[in-house]
Amino acid sequence: MNLAILFFFKYFNFACITFVKLGEFLGVPIRLPAFEVILPVGISFYTFQALSYTMDVYRGEIPAEKNFLKYALFVSFFPQLVAGPIERSKNLLSQISERHTFLWVRVKSGLLLMLFGYFQKVVIADRLAILVNQIYNHYQAYEGFEIALATVFFAFQIYFDFASYSNIAVGASRVLGFRLMENFNTPYFSLSVSEFWRRWHISLSTWFRDYLYIPLGGNRKGKLRKYLNLMIVFLISGLWHGASWHYVAWGGLNGFFQVVEDWTKPLRDSVFRRFGVNRKCFSHKLLSGVFTFVLVDFAWLFFRSDGLITGLRMLRRMFLRFNPWIFFDGTLYTLGLEQKDFTVLAVSFAIILFFSICRYRGFHVGPALARQGLWFRWTFYFFAIFFVLIFGVYGPDTNESVFIYFQF
Which helix (H) or strand (E) holds 141? Predict the structure, then answer.
């Protein structure tokens, strides 16, 4: 029933259009009624949350909730209702019955996490969106490194946009006394595509693992079945993101990369041993990280494009011309962002890189900041707030830039 509701609102028109086009291809004219149905905000997220509850009860992992209001609060918990993280009943539902009291340390921690989320969104993601939207919405006027730059910018835009919402949601929940799961863990530091998906949108990745991949057999039924299960999961993951073939292509590419990665692992291990490659050295990790980013970013092009055909056309235009001089002749500043915007981005990326490296190495800045003196902490707080207020992209002269995952 949950999936039927999701199908009607999100996929019915897509199914009808696909059916009509298939009929045209076969020479059989088909006419179906068109429905202009308004998509409920965040329907994919709370549908999956409700599904996980149903399956957890069925498996006997949690008892059925007898209080309808508690169940309703679990499904519609407002901080993460629109774009996740997709919470599990074993975590969130049990917290609803707990007693929640005001605790200043917890509230301060939640507010700081929300502030960090606002920095990611209005300073970085929305500034990157200006160039990305300019090129992707008018791709016929651009080619070569212009499209490549926009695609790289989109990789960071969608990360900071989605991570910012997750941080704001987790922070707001923490203020209220609730603990939500982590949704991102420095994904662009990944050394393989499979590792990327263990670090990216963790709540969705683990949802598909626990409720689709493992029930399908996981990796317990041989290599061929494992690869088939991987492709099924990522094709469905692509379709979950939107009722369009370019999302399916994006999901299929990520699944294909992991299949090839796993299939070639014995060969790569043998080659590395033969040539004595030190896989723990920085240079090897850097090369692996860059190669992983290129593969992931290649798939992001189809995710951001307006359609599968558009994505293929943009890919063709990207390789049509070799024009690296755009980075030196001033063309870079005609793509929607001025020189001062690139300066703000460079400083912001340096800040993010510092926090990311600290986290990657297991050093948490928040607790370290809490141990500092009062004057230092409040100087940091006010600096962070004014940095967001001064350099954030907002106001009447800017185009509205909603969270990307609101559409899903």
Answer: none
Buried b (16+ CB within 10 A) or exposed e, 293-307: bebbbbbbbbbbbee
How many CB atoms are located within 10 Å of the residue 229 CB?
21
CB 243 within 8 A of CB 408: no
Whether the bond between 215 and the residue before it is cis, its omega within 30 degrees of 0, is no
Which residues does 99 contact at the CB level (< 8 Å), separation at least 6? Answer: none
Query: Residue 288 and residue 279: Cα distance in Å, rounded?
Result: 9
Q: Is 183 helix (H, G, I), strand (E, B) or coil?
A: coil
Radius of gyration of the chain (CA): 23
Annotated catalytic residue, options 100, 201, 241, 364: 241
202, 163 contact by CB (below 8 A): no
- 397: pLDDT strictly greater than 80: no
- Measured in residues, the chain has a length of 408
Render 256-322 in DSSP notation, one character per residue: HHHHHHHHTHHHHHHHHHHTT--TTSHHHHHHHHHHHHHHHHHHHHHHHSSSHHHHHHHHHHHTT--
AA letter at 406: F
Residue-wise pLDDT tens digits, 67-81: 999 999 998 888 888
List the one residue out of 98, 104, 97 whose CA is nearest residue 70.
Answer: 97
CA distances from 147 to 304, 311, 326, 401 (A): 12, 11, 11, 20
Distances (CA, A) of 130 to 153, 161, 329, 342, 402: 10, 13, 20, 12, 12
Look-up of token digits 């949950």: 2
65 and 74 Cβ atoms separated by less than 8 Å: yes
Q: Is 138 a catalytic residue?
A: no
User: What is the C-alpha separation between 180 and 208, in angstroms, rounded?
Assistant: 18
Whole-angstrom CA distances from 297 to 34, 294, 304 are 35, 5, 10
pLDDT, one tens digit per residue, over 341-383 is 999 999 999 999 998 888 888 888 878 888 888 899 899 999 9
Q: At how many degrees (to 10) do helices 282-304 and 145-176 cross?
A: 90
